[in-house]
Amino acid sequence: MTVLDLVLSLALLISLGFCAWLRARRHPSSPVPPPPPAPDPLAALRQPAFLAVADGIDTGVIVVDSTRHIQFLNEPAEAMLGIGQLLRSQSLIAMIRDHQADAIVAQALRDGEPREIVLKPIPSGRTLLLRCTPLNPNGQISGAMLLIHDVTQISMLERARRDLVANVSHELRTPLASLKLLVETVQSAPPPEVAQRMLDLMAQEIDAVTQLVDELHELAQIESGRVALKLTPTPLLPVVERAIARIRPQADRTQITISAEIHDEQCLALIDADRIGQVLLNLLHNAVKFNRTGGAVVVRATLVAPVAPAGTTADDPCGEGDWFHVSVSDTGMGIPSQDLPRIFERFYKVDRARTRHAGGTGLGLAIAKHLIEGHGGRLWAESTEGHGSTFSFTLPVA
Ligand code: ADP
Fold this sequence. Notes:
The chain has eleven helices and twelve strands. By secondary structure, the chain is of the alpha+beta class. The protein is elongated and about 110 Å long. The structure holds adenosine-5'-diphosphate (ADP). Adenosine-5'-diphosphate binds near residues 286, 343, 350 and 355.
């Protein structure tokens, strides 16, 4: 060992000793302070500001700890899940009763990855989107925040769109299949009278497809608000008479009588006469189509005044707030009670097999309902199966 090596070793030893002394000065060895308490990762849940925001928003918020027990649940979450009271500290599965949702929360707590799932809780009947985000403030997963969005409306719209496509393709398939058959028959050069019959049938099928496309277009126009009603004070009697005149040839073919009982003729209705004529024609068409040979159809219109306050008399017979009640009654096959609430849905037909020969798109009542509601009125049906039906609507007095 040279003198230089010795000097260097000594210098190293001295500097190490100095560092040790400095460290000892900065961190005296006694007394050792107790370690600070571990921060409560869910303490923010008790902050008044958090509580105020969580109850004020329309998103459901649930916070669970690492064992999936509820630490926080806001009011919108209670309402969306249809649970009566705050079930704090209950397990998540006991509250939402959905094993898939519980499983994705467990996975998120395990691997720290956010996840989402769609729930349909039975008590509330809604469609909910549940998003689970793990909480790891110190790099350690201490629980998870579940945000719940009510997507019932969006999923209903999506279902309606899917149903519409399915219904339109179903309705088009039948006439297109028979058109194909008819064309093939005509192509095989049948005798002229057979060919003529086939051509007549083809014309009928084309009419059916055209009607479907027209009604679909009209419904789309009405639903998107592109049909402006031209509301004018109008007497109801001529509107009713015109509709009856148009349906009479069809009624005569099966000896069905049609009569009208119009009361309060001195009062005018605030209506778009063409559109109300269209509604009446649709109801009359059904009343004849679903009637029996020799049956009857009656159109009635009468004023329904709001109840006059006690001690007063309503001296103006066509006063503001009065309504016409219009009804179309038939003596036909009627509508089973389980189908009655659904007949105003697009494409809904009672027992397709029973009504196939009658034709029709199943769109007429949906259009009529929109038109009456566009006038501020209401359209509804009453029926006794085997005895007949009455379709009624209300219209404002001018
Ligand atoms: P369409 O008559 O073109 O099928 P609608 O929307 O007008 O379509 O009617 C829907 C369904 O409601 C009909 O297919 C039929 O099953 C039922 N319906 C409507 N009106 C009557 C009625 N007066 N009597 C019996 N059933 C009816």
